[in-house]
Specification:
Length: 432
């Protein structure tokens, strides 16, 4: 087993820096959880232990927040920042102890090989995950009817960026292809250097988007870029010679591991095949399945999709004047494939972008229209109104809403959105 023919003595600062980076990346990558396929043993108890240690350290050291919010749809919660501080603290203390206990070791060439190996596969995993979902154009979807009808200024920066990318399927597929290409190049040690360079460019752009559009994956994307930089630093002399100084670059050796025995070479191939089969291939299958479901023919709905505007509102048997300044008025009603939203200041359900969002069900037998809060919970807030359809473009709703008796008539408006046209012109005579 020969990692490198060179066996130099590292400087003191290089050894100290390596120890810190090794410990930090080990905590970040957590390779001991990779083999826990079920997620019920190592992952479960490791997560519980990590959560307890992070909470304890935050209570006595960091004080990010009195009560930490766990990681959820956001990766930048108070727990996420406390966890980052915990990793840095453990890496610093571990580096100090390691430096005192292992002062005489000349270098960590073999240990650095394993660090780079796991760092490569850590990057491969996430580049592949995000690359596949983008290739199927599932991470950022085309703006819905609700989004198209929402004023641009009402969107938060993250949602704005999501629709910016989701608008163009070719651009999203291209982004995913570049992530997939970087992952595939990283799989082979001969092309790993090119893979790291490409991954650094791709992930730096992702990190910039997260930072500039306030997307709550800042910590994780920065950690992926940091992992790329660790790999690049290992080859910094070769890269600078080739790209900057116009000098011959030495042959790379940090990813090469020569096995002298056949069974070791065979085992290496088997492990890589298993990684591809059990870690990467299922992502393609899952994304293809989601793509098929997303693009499946929509069921024929009793009520047409579209933007409906109120033409008559009666509350407690008294007609209501339809004023846009009335914040409690349902200023529009948008229905789209079983989901809906209302532009109103009334706190019916969860509000986003000055709208309330819901899912709906229509009981044609009892002639009821059920508005349901779009949450997966045992008890879901609902509003049930009676309905009738005088014609294909008209909905009449009446019944009890909160403590009021209401009767509302909505007309479907032939609303045209230029953004939905997905325009593209090779020849453009003027700036549009």
């Amino acid at each position: 087993m020969n990692v490198s023919s060179v066996n130099p003595t590292w400087s003191l600062w290089k050894k100290i820096l390596f120890r810190f980076v090794f410990l930090y990346l080990a905590l970040q990558i957590s390779p001991w959880t990779w083999l826990d396929i079920t997620g019920q043993f190592v992952n479960k108890y490791y997560s519980q232990l990590l959560g307890w240690l992070v909470t304890l350290s935050n209570t006595y050291l960091y004080h990010v927040r009195p009560v930490l919010v766990p990681l959820n749809g956001s990766g930048d919660t108070s727990f996420g920042w406390a966890q980052l501080l915990f990793y840095l603290t453990v890496a610093a203390l571990g580096c100090l102890i390691w430096s005192l206990a292992d002062r005489k070791r000349p270098n960590y060439i073999q240990l650095n090989y394993w660090l780079c190996l796991f760092a490569r596969y850590y990057l491969i995993t996430y580049l592949f995950i995000y690359g596949v979902i983008k290739i199927f154009a599932l991470q950022m979807v085309f703006p819905s009817l609700h989004a198209l009808a929402t004023p641009l200024g009402d969107f938060l920066p993250m949602r704005f960026s999501w629709y910016f990318i989701g608008y163009s399927t070719p651009y999203q597929v291209f982004s995913g292809f570049m992530e997939m290409l970087a992952a595939l190049l990283l799989l082979n040690w001969r092309t790993a250097t090119l893979g790291v360079l490409l991954a650094t460019a791709v992930l730096t752009n992702v990190m910039a988007l997260n930072l500039c559009f306030d997307i709550p994956v800042k910590i994780f994307s920065a950690q992926l870029v940091f992992t790329c930089l660790v790999l690049l630093v290992n080859e910094s002399r070769r890269i600078i010679n080739f790209f900057v100084l116009n000098k011959p670059a030495d042959t790379g050796s940090i990813y090469e591991f020569t096995y002298n025995k056949k069974w070791k070479r065979v085992t290496r191939i088997i492990v890589k095949v298993c990684f591809i089969a059990f870690a990467l291939a299922p992502r393609v299958y899952q994304s293809a399945k989601q793509y098929k479901a997303y693009n499946a023919p929509k069921p024929n709905l009793l009520v047409k999709n579209g933007v409906y505007e109120p033409v008559s509102v009666i509350v407690n048997n008294k007609p209501v004047q339809l004023l846009l300044t009335d914040s409690l008025l349902w200023q529009d009603l948008i229905l789209e494939d079983g989901t809906g939203s209302i532009k109103t200041g009334e706190k019916l359900f969860k509000r986003r972008y000055n709208r309330v969002y819901f899912v709906y069900e229509i009981d044609s037998a009892n002639h009821t229209f059920v508005f349901k809060e779009n949450v997966d919970a045992a008890s879901v807030k609902t509003i049930t109104l009676n309905y009738s359809l005088p014609d294909t473009n008209t909905i009449k709703l009446w019944g009890k809403k909160n403590t009021d008796s209401v009767a509302m008539i909505f007309k479907r408006k032939n609303r045209h959105f230029q953004l939905a046209e997905r325009q593209f012109h090779w020849l453009t005579e003027y700036n549009r």
